[in-house]
Amino acid sequence: MGSTVNLEQIEELAAKLPQQEQLKLVARICERLIEAVSKTVTGDKKETEMLRRERALEATSILRECDLAAAAFTRKTDSAETIRRIRDERHRQL
Q1: Which residues contact 14 (CB under 8 A, 6 or more apart)?
Q2: Structural domain boundaries of the chain?
């Protein structure tokens, strides 16, 4: 078996490669990670479905909170006027 190599040693070796070779290395690493993540995500259908449902419930809850917050602000606001007011207040402070 080969000896163990740590991250710092790999970084030193990678830095010695020409840029084109570094890009190829990054691409290969990305491909491996994408494959690993894909296998993890598609590995357990029940777990994936449960995660999807949890996220959907969380999104629904967040949207409900947004709707409640929007309902609390019933008066119309003029953004341009608000910005002018803030700018004028700052000018007066100077």
Answers
A1: 22, 25
A2: 1-43, 45-94
Q: In this predicted model, what pLDDT tens digit does every residue of 35-78 receive, in sequence order?
A: 877 766 555 677 778 888 888 888 888 888 878 877 777 677 67
Count the helix, strand and coil residues of the chain and give each as a percent rounded to the nearest 5.
85, 0, 15
Q: Which residue is listed with tokens 């000018």?
A: 91
> What mean pLDDT do residues 7-26 have?
90
DSSP state of 4: P
